[in-house]
From TrEMBL:
Keywords: Signal. It comes from Penicillium salamii. The lineage of its organism: Eukaryota, Fungi, Dikarya, Ascomycota, Pezizomycotina. It holds the Pfam family Lipase_2. GO terms for molecular function: lipase activity. This is Uncharacterized protein.
Length: 275
C-alpha cells in the first residue's frame, strides 16, 4: 500500500476507534440495512470499514461479517471458493432482514465482495431480499491480473507471514475462481442474466484499476445495470484497486446508489493518489 494511503488510514483509524455501530440491530433508519462485503484477503473490519463508519454518520444502519475465512485463520477472509462463501453470505442476508425486520437489504461490495454481491442474488435464492447493489470493481468477467495470489495479500493483516502461512496451508480457491477461466466466473456468466428481477445494480469502477484488469471486465452489459467509471463523475481521481475502498468520491457514489439519487452532486476530491 502506498504511503499516502497508509497515512490516511492511520488518521482514519483514530475516527474508527470511536465508531461502534456495525451490526447494531437496534439501529433505526429509513433506508434499507446496508450489508458490506469485503475483498479477498480482507475482513469485515478491514477494507470497507471506513466507508461504513462514514455511512453510519449519514444515518445508515450497516452490517458486515467476515466470510470465506478458514477455521483458525479469522484474520484472512474471502479465501474459500466463491461457491462455498456464497451460502454463508446468503444466510447472513437472511439473518439481517430477520433481525432488523426490514423486507430488503442493500449490498455494497468491493472486489471479490462485489463479485459476491452479483453472484449470491443470482444463485443463492435471496434476490427477493435485495434491493440496490453497489458493486465496486467486481472481477465480473475475470481479472487477467497475472499474480492472482498476490490479491490475497492486499488487504491482509499487516503480518504478511500470517497470511502467507494460511495460503501455504489451505490455498486460495477464491483466487482461482476469479482468474481467467475461473469456475465462478464461468458460472456467473452462464448466458442467463446476472441482474435479477427487482435488483438495481450499479457497477463502480476505476479506469486506473491495476488489479481487476482490464477494468471494464467489471461492467455488465444488461438492461437495468448502471456501469459507471469513477472518472465519469470525478475525472481527476486516479484511484486504483485498493484505494477504491478508501476514496471519498467512491463513498459519495455509493451513497447516491443507496439513496437512488445517481445524479446528486458532490464535490470531488482529488482522491488518494495511488493504488
Ligand atoms: C464449487 O466450485 C468448485 C470450483 O471452484 C468446484 O470444483 C466445486 O465442485 C463446486 N462446488 C459446489 C458445491 O458447487
Ligand atoms: C494481525 O495479525 C496478528 C497475528 O498474526 C494479530 O496479532 C493482530 O491483531 C492482527 N492485526 C489486525 C489489525 O488484525
Ligand atoms: C449511473 O451512475 C452515475 C454515477 O452516479 C450517474 O451519473 C448516472 O446518471 C447513472 N445513470 C443512470 C442511467 O442512472
Amino acid at each position: 500500500m502506498p504511503s499516502f494511503t497508509r497515512l490516511a488510514l492511520s488518521a482514519l483509524a483514530a475516527t474508527a476507534a470511536l465508531a461502534t455501530g456495525i451490526n447494531d440491530y437496534s439501529c433505526k433508519s429509513d433506508s434499507n440495512p446496508v450489508i458490506f462485503l469485503h475483498g479477498l484477503g480482507a475482513t469485515y473490519y478491514e477494507d470497507l470499514n471506513f466507508m461504513q463508519y462514514w455511512l453510519q454518520s449519514k444515518g445508515y444502519c450497516t452490517y458486515a461479517q467476515t466470510y470465506g475465512a478458514y477455521d483458525g485463520f479469522p484474520l484472512v477472509g474471502g479465501l474459500k471458493a466463491i461457491n462455498v462463501s456464497a451460502p454463508e453470505i446468503a444466510s447472513y442476508i437472511k439473518e439481517v432482514t430477520q433481525k432488523t425486520g426490514k423486507a430488503k437489504v442493500d449490498l455494497v461490495g468491493h472486489s471479490e465482495g462485489a463479485f459476491q454481491a452479483l453472484y449470491v442474488p443470482k444463485f443463492e435464492g435471496v434476490s427477493h431480499l435485495v434491493d440496490k447493489i453497489a458493486a465496486i470493481a467486481p472481477p465480473t468477467h475475470a481479472t487477467a491480473f497475472a499474480h492472482i495470489y498476490d490479491i490475497a495479500y492486499l488487504f491482509g493483516n499487516s503480518s504478511r507471514n500470517a497470511v502467507s502461512e494460511v495460503l501455504h496451508l489451505v490455498g486460495c480457491p477464491a483466487c482461482d475462481d476469479v482468474g481467467p477461466d475461473g469456475a465462478a466466473v464461468k458460472r456467473l456468466n452462464d448466458g442467463t442474466p446476472i441482474a435479477q428481477p427487482g435488483n438495481k445494480i450499479t457497477i463502480i469502477a476505476s479506469k486506473y484499476d491495476e488489479l481487476v484488469t482490464p477494468p471494464k471486465t467489471s461492467f455488465i452489459d444488461e438492461d437495468g445495470v448502471n456501469n459507471t467509471w469513477i472518472q465519469d463523475t470525478c475525472p481527476l481521481d486516479p484511484v486504483g484497486h485498493i484505494g477504491e475502498a478508501y476514496d471519498l468520491n467512491v463513498w459519495h457514489l455509493v451513497r447516491n446508489v443507496l439513496d437512488d439519487t445517481p445524479d446528486r452532486k458532490f464535490v470531488c476530491l482529488l482522491g488518494s493518489p495511488g493504488k
